[in-house]
């Protein structure tokens, strides 16, 4: 389970270890260096945004896609203004609209593969993949 390198009652950033041992000791040297640079550059940016009130709370995790190693896992702030709970690496966030970009990327990557039967023009129940990706149904807009 992840553990914090720093505590934060006031909402300051807590860098989180990838393992219960040492966060970067298990990483190869090139990834250890990258991890250190990411923390050095991104921690102050998130901290300033939080201090200015632009960010109430956030959690940022970066993973090396080749090895699956956690390069960065930062958490700061609180979940809510009215019933504040400290943000940790285990905090769940409702992604709502933010997930659309990930879904679109996954669908477009699937379409890129020639072996995929999926195409932008593929229709299900009158809506095409293109409609879904552009967040339209293909029907005329109606507002009473």
Automatic annotation (TrEMBL):
Q: Give one Pfam family.
A: Beta-lactamase
Q: Which residues form the Beta-lactamase-related domain?
A: 57-142
Q: What is this protein called?
A: Beta-lactamase-related domain-containing protein
Q: Which InterPro entries match?
A: Beta-lactam-related, Beta-lactam/transpept-like
């Amino acid at each position: 389970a992840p553990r914090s390198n720093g505590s934060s009652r006031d909402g300051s950033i807590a860098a989180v270890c990838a393992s219960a041992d040492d966060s970067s000791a298990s990483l190869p040297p090139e990834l250890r260096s990258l991890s250190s640079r990411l923390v050095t550059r991104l921690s102050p940016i998130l901290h300033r945004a939080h201090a200015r009130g632009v960010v109430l709370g956030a959690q940022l995790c970066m993973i090396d896609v080749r090895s699956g190693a956690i390069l960065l896992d930062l958490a700061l702030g609180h979940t809510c203004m009215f019933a504040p709970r400290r943000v940790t690496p285990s905090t769940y966030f409702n992604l709502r609209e933010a997930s659309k970009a990930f879904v679109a990327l996954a669908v477009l990557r699937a379409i890129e593969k020639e072996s995929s039967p999926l195409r932008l023009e593929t229709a299900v129940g009158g809506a095409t993949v293109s409609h879904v990706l552009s967040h339209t149904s293909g029907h005329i807009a109606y507002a009473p």
